Amino acid sequence: MISVVVVDDDQLVRSGVKMILETAPDIAVIGEASDGEEAIRLVSKSRPDVVLMDVRMPGTDGIEATRRLTTVAPECRIAILTTFEHDEYVFEALRAGASGFLLKRIPPDDLIAAVRTLAAGDALLSPSVTRRLIEVFARRATGRAQSAGFERLTDREREVLIELATGASNAELAEALFISEETVRTHVKRVLSKLGLRDRAQAIVLAYESGLVAPGSSAANLP
Question: For residue 141, which phi and psi values (nearest 5 degrees)?
Answer without folding.
Answer: -55, 135
